[in-house]
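Protein record

Derive tokens from sequence
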Amino acid sequence: MTSDRYLKIVRASAWYDLLVTWPFATPWTFVWLYGNLTTLAQTLGLPGTVHPLDATHILFANLLGSVVLVWSLARLLNPSLRLGRLDGMARVLFALWQVNAFLAGANAIVLGFTAFELIFAVLQFWPKVGRKLETTSPN
């Protein structure tokens, strides 16, 4: 894979993260998102439980959202092989914890997020890219 193509994938994954996680970053937007995801899960009749929110759930969602937003900006402003590989590793971990949550009874709507985590993990972690990419990160 060419370095330009790889860096486009790193940027695309960062844009995806911005789009999907910005509602997690504040209490108000997360409550709105959670309500919509709950309605969607019920409408689709997905298996698993959607628990009522409490302050601790909201806090952890906001911490996740804040960290992922900053991580996304880092990959947009300075995409590199290293950041792409690290993001791929993080996505594998996220996917593992999402599957674990589903198997423990969380609603299947989480698996929609898992699919994208795995797609971007493969795209960023698997391809062999030339060494030259390590020292360059064109914007």
